[in-house]
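Trying the structure run again after the queue cleared.
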Amino acid sequence: MTENTDTGATMRAMSQDVFGGPEVLKEVERPRPQPDTSEIVVRVRVAGVNPTDWKHRAGLPWLREPIPVLGWDVAGVVEQVSRGVTLFKPGDEVFGMLPYPHGAGAYAEYAKAAARCFTRKPANIDFVQAGALPLAALTAYQALVDTADVQPGQRVLIHAAAGGVGHLAVQIAKARGAYVIGTASAGKHDLLRELGADELIDYRTTDFTQAVDNIDVVLDPLAGENTTRSLDVLRKGGTLVAILPTTDAAAQKAAALGVRLEGMLVEADQAGMRAIAQLAEQGRLRAHIDAAYPLAEAAEAHAHGETDRTTGKLVLIVTP
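Done. Tokens:
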């Protein structure tokens, strides 16, 4: 067991005092976290950037004050372990998701969480890949595997297939043996074919409800009318998994059609992270990196993400 009793140690972090645009993110010195029982402290090499980050930064209705340090995706090296931890030792390379939504803190040189939020980083992927995967890959895995139980031969429709969750969901569904259909703008179709998509729909020119039917599973990260319309393409008994809040009208429509509508919120999950690590190690799951920014340029990363033109993932390089 290694525990740091130097409570005066500090670290660089990106923080905010008020809600607002990307410019509210400032580099600060903060106390280095100390591990509680069953926790580890990780020296962060790379932190993933996700849409939920800039939504929290701007202010969500239930937030009374800003989260001091944003970010849930962590890839790095174990710095400290506390009492009760047997899975990791200092020096181990790990990646994982801090508990969502209340465990944020990845935009910093050090982050802490329960040891079982992490798993070992495969040796054949770098920290950039590892930092890009956790939240988005766990969302896709928990939607397609844990919730929908996708089976070989099933027809799976993935909306926003070139986005952070979507492009990983394409690969996870293919690894499950599904026939994968994705919606994305035409310029992103080549990448999605490389990742395994069997059929692609340009949402700008084609109404997906006229292009597909008899779908077993829909993964919808878009919400609103897209969710309601997606129910029409499901076979009876099919499942739609939404990762944003759904409406009572959508629930009533699903019941009338005899289909299943599930809303989910991603959870820190070591079993899921181990499955993701195995797929990555096998070369069956990789994040497409749209751009990487130094930690100090987190505001620029957020501004980039908020254009809604990102393909795949954005990451922050925290420490070399």
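The chain has two domains: 10-133+287-317, 136-263. Worth checking whether this holds up in the mutant runs.
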